[in-house]
Structure formats: structure tokens, C-alpha cells
Amino acid sequence: MTTVIKGGTLITADRMWEADILIEGEKIAAVGPDLKGDTVIDAGGAYVIPGGIDPHTHLEMPFMGTTAAETFESGTAAAASGGTTMIVDFVLPGPDGSLVNAVKDWHRKADGKICIDVGWHVAITGWNQTIWQEMAEVVKMGVNSFKHFMAYKGALMVEDDEMYASFTRCAELGALPLVHAENGDIIAELQKKFMEAGQIGPEGHAHSRPPEVEGEATNRAIMIADAAGVPLYVVHVSCEQAHEAIRRARQKGMRVFGEPLVQHLTLDESEYFDKDWDHAAQRVMSPPFRNKAHQDSLWAGLTAGSLQVVATDHCAFTTDQKRMGLKGFPMIPNGTGGLEDRLAVLWTTGVETGRLTPEEFVAVTSTNIARILNIYPRKGALVPGADADIVVWDPKLKKTIRAANQLSILDYNVFEGIEVTAQARHTLSRGKVVWSHGQNERPRAGHGVYVPRPAFPSVNRALSVWKDLNSPRFVHRDPQNIPSGV
Ligand code: URP
Ligand code: ZN
Ligand code: ZN
Ligand code: ZN
């Protein structure tokens, strides 16, 4: 059985052209004019793009005394309806601290439930010999990225020595360290200060996490990565201070990547002020939404290439769960939704406004992260041999975002009322149509598979030349031969 997608305009990260796509089984077999297949998918008047990859989700994750409400079934169904065909979810070690058990646990939660493909990042939340050893096992299980929280003191936060040890291990294994960059010590102090001053509502969340705490941690993480000789990926970059650190590092030749979220690009800090408690709390996430100047910096980074990926950090708590923080903002579970609407909101606010070219849109929603995570061109590409993860993207399909109409399990939507100008007409995951607009057929649980990601080849590993022990700048001295008096 073959399928042909006919009559569309293809967009990839580097060009736009008219062609058909022939699909055989799960793979793209050919791209070109006048292709024939057993069944035809009409892409007339539409674009055809590689399926979106959201590299930052937290489905069913235990966090802040509760568990993220979005399930692997509802989250991946929602993602598929919005044109996303792969997510990379964050695995957190459980009470036994084992990374391997945590990965097995995430497979148990996802297997048979997912509608699209998934991969894992694994969080390093402490340091010991077992973790050092298990990191290698986890890499063999197809995980090539490890996440480090520099915030959430007393829970997930790692200290600098732990981060340095883990980054060094990443360098040995050919894995990529990720950081949530906020200074957790300063945040804890500011939280105390605002609570004592009586500012206990969600506004206090924004005040206690100013751009400075993010800028400081981003700079620190970059320097630690440099010292460990490993590239770095900074998740949810929300402000100029963090972006500036990444820009500067890249200009010096360091491999540092930055990921803004569609929420930070489009929603600002006014969401926390002069709003009712539920509205503001539903938008409490870390880092918090910023002002327009920070948003402009993030948009500029996407066009200039200093920021490479737009994700969602989908970590969805219901209004009832958010109310756990009624007595004080530090208890509001941190996280927002977005994975269903990422492509449509970014297209509307980015491509429609001229801030992003269609090619840049594809790069930041799919191709760049496929390259960064070492799954390109299986994912993120429209070439023969690639997985047929393809979206027929209709630039005339408008809708007003309403929580009432979403597939996400949440009872609200942070983009409520925003009118988007484009949507997925069809979403194909490994050659199968999993979503068609207007047909009201829920994507099928169990279609998705786990996508293992190989470790990086050694050529990609070095961040600093001076860390290379074979460099002429590294002087070997014989301890027996040091002149006396030195
Ligand atoms: O507020 C957020 N971002 N919640 C999810 C966990 C994290 O920090 O990424
Ligand atoms: Zn699995
Ligand atoms: Zn985070
Ligand atoms: Zn996150």
C-alpha cells in the first residue's frame, strides 16, 4: 500500500517548492512531481511540512506534591491534532533514585497509550556513583540528553559540583546536558521575602523570579559546560539576560543552544497582574512570562539563529491543582499547557506577521531539534528514507482557541480567545493519518513508538579547545622534575 500527498507546497528548513510525496509503509519513498500512489491525500492550497517535534513536555509527571494532569494518551492526541508528531518527555527519578528504573517507569506509562512517537530526556537530581554508572546504561536505552534543574531548591535542584560532575560524564558518554537555568538559592530568598511582606498571590511568583536569576544561572551553566568540555542546551529561555549569555557563548565558538517557549514569545507578564486568582495561577510557570522587551529579544534570537527551537514545556495542572497554592504562591504547581497549539500560535504570531519565514518556522518547530538531538533525518526532514511524519498545513483554516474544544485534558487554555490563521488539515505519523481536521476522530492510542537516540559522535563533543588533552596548549609536567623553590 502506497500513499501520495498531492498538490501541496513543501516547506523545509531550507526551501519551499511544489512537489508530491510518496509514502511506502512508514517511510517517505520519493519526493518529486507527478507521483502516483494507491491512495491520495489532497494538499491543494496547503503547505506540506515535517511533523512538529516538541522537545519539552512533562506528561503525568509527579511534581510539587501532585502529578501533571495531562496523560500520555491525552497529551499525544492533543499534540497530533496540532501538527506535532513527536514529543521528548522528561523522565524524573522516583524515590529509589534509579535512572534506569525511572526510564522503565516512563515506558510503562507511555506504552500502548501514545498516539505519536516519543523520546526521553532523563533528569539528574543528585550525584553519586550509581548515577554515574546508570548514565551509561540510560544512554544504551536510547537517551542522549540529561536535564539539570538549577532551581526548585530542596526538591530537584542540583549544586554546581553535581552539575560539573554530571556534565563531565555527559562529555565522556557523548550526551547533551540540558539546564533549567534559574538561581534556586536567590529564588528561595525572594519567595520568603514576598511571602513575609504579604504578597502571597500569583503576582509574587513573577516578582520572585526576575530575569537576573535566569541570566546568572545561564551564564554559570555555560561556564560549567565550558569547563567540562561539553555542549549545552538551555531550556525555556525567557529573557534577554539569558539570551545574551547564549549569544555571547556562541559568538566565541561554543556549542550552546537556546529554546524559547511559544508561551514566552506570545504571552506577557500582564497575565499575572490585575487578573483573578485562577487566571493568574493557571499561568504560573517557571520562568514566568516577561515584558515586551524580553519577547522582542526572543523573536530576534529566532531570526538571527542565536535561539534555535520553540517548545512548550507542556506541564499541565488543572485549576483545582493550581488551587493548592491559595495560601501562598510558592505552593502553586509550576507549569502551563501549550502542545496542542504550538504550531498554530507560532505560525499566526510569527509567519503571518513576517517575523519568521516559513522555512524558519519549520526549522524552529522541527528540523533544528531533530539535528540537536541526533535523530535527523529520520525526523524533521522531507527526504526519501525519513519517517513519514508529515503535516498538511492549511494556511486558510482559522479558529479561535477555546478550552471547550481542545483534546487536552485541561479545563482551561492559556491561549483562550486567540484567533489562529492556520491549522493541520491532516497529520501523518509514520505514514498513517492520525488526525484529519473536521472529522472528529480522536488519534488512536497505541500508534506511537519510542524513538531511541544514539549518543553523539566524538567530533560534536568538544566545547573548549583547551580541554583537549592533545592540544599543544596543554603542557604535561613531570611532578618529579619540578625545580625546587617553586
Ligand atoms: O514551570 C515549569 N516550567 N514547570 C515544569 C517543570 C520545569 O521547570 O520545566
Ligand atoms: Zn516503551
Ligand atoms: Zn524547567
Ligand atoms: Zn520543563
From TrEMBL:
Requisite cofactors: Zn(2+)
GO biological process per UniProt: nucleobase-containing small molecule metabolic process; pyrimidine-containing compound metabolic process
CDD domains tied to this protein: D-HYD
A single Gene Ontology CC term: cytosol
UniProt keyword list: Hydrolase, Metal-binding, Zinc
Transmembrane segments: none
Coiled coil regions, renumbered to chain: none
Enzyme class, broadest EC rank: hydrolase
Known role: Catalyzes the hydrolysis of dihydropyrimidines and of the structurally related DL-5-mono-substituted hydantoins, to produce N-carbamoyl-D-amino acids.
Record text on subunit structure and interactions: Homotetramer.
Protein name: D-hydantoinase/dihydropyrimidinase
